[in-house]
Structures are given as structure tokens and as C-alpha cells.
Amino acid sequence: xxxxxxxxxxxxxxxxxxxxxxxxxxxxxxxxxxxxxxxxxxxxxxxxxxxxxxxxxxxxxxxxxxxxxxxxxxxxxxxxxxxxxxxxxxxxxxxxxxxxxxxxxxxxxxxxxxxxxxxxxxxxxxxxxxxxxxxxxxxxxxxxxxxxxxxxxxxxxxxxxxxxxxxxxxxxxxxxx
Length: 177
Prior knowledge:
8 helices; mainly alpha
């Protein structure tokens, strides 16, 4: 997912003539694709918290330093759309934990990927669904940037509505062992 997001952010940087950010994003994307070879099912290497936190920091920082609003102000939300899968997961987990009366910073098996696995998707299918969602959201974010404010608002509204409906479906998945 991070490689796909980095590729979309790279595209945005190229379109905006931001060569420094484009080089950083290309390097990040290349490193992630190289890592994916060993991490894809059956995985031989696993990334720890430190690596994933660093990748999240790099994606967040580089996303904030790009330019999105040449055609309309709604496109300022494009980086959130590009990073929509981890954003959805974070907000969904916070919602579920809050509803259960648990601290939102406490670990629990509430993440959407675990719910997809509980829904009887294989590890490979879960990963491919996540990759596909990131690619689709990246394309929609580019559409938000290229279109008018009305088009960007319609795309954003559709994404938010889809996320809410998906959250309602995921919330119904029984996560008890």
C-alpha cells in the first residue's frame, strides 16, 4: 500500500515540478517494491514497527509538502484520499474501540485487515484488496486534482459515503475468537 501511495505522490510531485520530492518518493517506492518481493505471501522478511513508522512519517511529510490545489481548493484533501486506507483503518479502529469503552491507544484485533481475514479472505486476498483500494483512491485523488471543485466535491462525497458504508459492514464482523 505504501509503495502505491508513494507512486501516486511521485506522480503529483512530477506534475507540479517538484523534483526533490519526486526523487525522494521514487526512492521510497523503489525500496518498498524491493522489500515487497520478500514480504509477499509466503513472507520471508517482516517489517517491524520502526520500519512502518518511518514509512508512515515519510509518506505523511512528503504528502504535506506537495501541491494539490492548482484547479480547485477541495483538492487540498487529496493527500488524505491518497493515504485513505491507513486513514480509514485508524478512524475505524478508534471508533470501534471507543464504542467498546476501550482506550483508543490500546492494542486489540480491530483492524480492517484482520476483519477481512475473519471474513475468510486469505492473506494474499486481503493484501491484494488493500493494494487495489490504495490504487483506486490514488486515481480518485488525481481526479480530484484535475477536475473542477464540483467534480472534486462529488468524488470526495462518494469516498466518504463508501467509507461509512464499509465501516458499517466491517463493524458487523464478529471478532471474537
